[in-house]
Write a structure and sequence with these properties.
By secondary structure, this protein is of the alpha+beta class. It has three domains: 141 residues, Orthogonal Bundle (DNA ligase i, domain 1), CATH 1.10.3260; 197 residues, D-amino Acid Aminotransferase, Chain A, domain 1 (2-Layer Sandwich); 123 residues, OB fold (Dihydrolipoamide Acetyltransferase, E2P) (Beta Barrel), CATH 2.40.50. 34% of the residues are buried. Helices cover 35% and strands 24% of the residues. Helix 6 runs antiparallel to helix 9 and helix 10 crosses helix 11. It has 19 helices and 22 strands.
Length: 529
């Protein structure tokens, strides 16, 4: 635990990716193999289910410390993280426990099926034998999240630095299905399990936002241009008669989209195809808000299948009858994808992405500006000679999204952040005018500078009207421009609308509350491009 605790501390104190990679690589060099395996499992979402309810941990802490509930909740609202609050409030340890990471994780897995009394005895013994930082790590291992900026890419780069194995191969090895109970660390990083899993996907190839003028890209005939659809990026994997559907978040979502399984079952070839999962009805792409109704459903009813039918727009081909073709050019892969689709009569819900015909860069701005009329986010530009690389590689693929929509709204609630942001108010709720009052339309926590966050936090401290746990109701005085990618009607929200990816565009110090948008003007954006 000490080695893992030291690793987390080393990562938390820096925002430099290379420093995090160095710390992780050092851990891989010095830790036991079983600990390394659990580290990868924890940071790739393969940890076991939570064995202890957080309400019980709160009760046990109050029992040990003698704190009343109101004081515990006030402490929690100040800190902003339950695991950290527990670690700070508990008294000094009375002993010393020195278990490795894999020993702790084995104990926690076994704890799931035990009684609450057994769980209490185990947790209290652990708290008594760990220092403050180790307690925090222990609490997080029970079920919290490590918000320390370790992405899968950072983890893979650290593994590559330690092992000398190609990062793409490592990414392929650690994503998808595997278990710490069935695989050794060496077998995992060498990918010994890959060939036995018909569902294995490839790391997604991603694009950078276009940051240059179009004519700086070179000759137009060297590029493929497509619509950028607002759905779920996915890979259809068909091998040995099995079909598996993966989201870009590396979640297996096959059961959520039975229409796609049925449609691709008609293909006799094996393949891996990259594309977009979309809600398509009457040959039109629906809004992402409609697609959301189909997400994370354990059971898809006939009614929902009819209301929100699912389709797939194919962009790229990564594997053709068992051959990995990612290193071939975009143009070559596109040709093989077209050849595959031309062999079959495609169901109505399976589409091949339309390549936009153009001769001059000057033709594209108008096409992009009309994207919202077909529920598209903008355009994708892909160089014909580009390979299907892992992650982002600047210069090969560009996404050129339409400018975001914006509204002016007033802040009415503020909440403290978590972790290193727990001392400041960083999460805000915004409202627009409705009749003689206000109605909330969005929550946002990104887009401000550290200096602005500090200034707003000081203002909240002086202008809070009410408090509800960590949330403060504030005077409706600060106006902000809120940017978002899309908007749709919603019965789940009091305002009647849902914004897609809201964030703070700027603090409108120049604008009085009287001039913010109304809910009527916000709803007009749904029908106006």
């Amino acid at each position: 635990m000490k080695a893992f605790s030291n690793l987390i501390s080393a990562i938390e104190i820096t925002n430099k990716t290379n420093a995090k990679i160095e710390a992780l690589a050092h851990y891989f060099k010095t830790a036991p193999d079983k600990d390394k395996l659990w580290l990868i499992a924890i940071f790739t979402g393969k940890r076991p289910p939570r064995p202890v309810k957080t309400t019980l941990m709160k009760e046990w802490c109050m029992e040990i410390t003698g704190l009343p509930e109101w004081l515990f909740l006030e402490s929690y609202s100040t800190v902003g993280d339950l695991g950290e609050t527990l670690a700070l409030l508990l008294p000094e340890p009375t002993g010393q426990l020195d278990l490795s990471l894999h020993e702790w994780m084995t104990e926690l897995k076994a704890l799931k099926s035990k009684s609450d009394d057994d769980k209490k005895a185990f947790v209290l013994e652990a708290w008594a034998g760990l220092d403050q930082q180790e307690r925090l790590i222990f609490n997080k291992l029970i079920g919290g999240s490590f918000r320390i900026g370790v992405s899968k890419k950072t983890l893979v780069n650290a593994l590559a630095k330690y092992s000398g194995i190609d990062a793409n191969r490592l990414m392929h090895s650690i994503i998808g299905k595997w278990s710490v109970d069935d695989l050794s660390f060496e077998a995992l990083i060498k990918g010994q399990h890959i060939n036995y899993d018909n569902s294995k996907l490839y790391p997604f190839c991603l694009a950078y936002a276009l940051d240059k003028e179009l004519d700086e890209l070179g000759e137009p005939e060297d590029w493929i241009v497509e619509q950028k659809w607002d759905g779920i990026r996915g890979q259809i994997v068909k091998r040995n008669g099995e079909i598996h559907i993966w989201s870009r978040g590396e979640e297996l979502v096959t059961s959520q989209f039975p229409e796609l399984v049925e449609a691709f079952s008609g293909f006799s070839n094996d393949f891996v195809i990259d594309g977009e999962i979309l809600a398509i009805k009457d040959n039109n792409v629906l809004l992402f808000n409609d697609l959301q109704k189909r997400l994370n459903r354990k059971n898809v009813t006939k009614k929902l299948l009819a209301e929100v039918p699912i389709g797939f727009c194919a962009y790229d081909m990564l594997e053709d009858d068992g051959d990995d073709i990612r290193e071939q050019s975009m143009q070559s892969r596109r040709h093989q994808l077209e050849t595959l689709f031309n062999r079959y009569t495609l169901p109505n819900n399976i589409k091949l992405s339309h390549l936009i015909a153009f001769k001059s860069w000057n033709e594209l701005p108008e096409i992009r500006s009309n994207s919202r009329q077909i529920n598209s986010e903008g355009l994708m530009l892909k160089h014909k000679n580009s390979s299907y690389h892992s992650g982002r590689k600047k210069g090969d693929w560009w996404k050129w999204k339409v400018d975001p929509m914006t509204i002016d709204a007033v802040m009415i609630y503020a909440q403290r952040g978590s972790g290193r942001r727990s001392s400041k108010y960083t999460d805000y709720t915004f409202a627009v005018k409705k009749d003689d009052g206000l109605v909330t339309v969005a929550k946002a926590y990104s887009g401000l500078t550290d200096k602005e966050i500090t200034e707003i936090s000081q203002w909240v401290g002086k202008n809070a009207i009410e408090r509800f746990g960590p949330v403060r109701t504030v005077k409706p005085e600060l106006v902000f421009e809120i940017a978002f990618e899309g908007i749709a009607f919603s019965k789940r929200h009091k305002s009647g609308v849902a914004l897609r990816f809201p964030r703070i565009a700027r603090w409108r110090r120049d604008k009085p509350v009287e001039d913010i948008d109304t809910i009527e003007s916000v709803k007009q954006l749904i029908t106006s491009p």
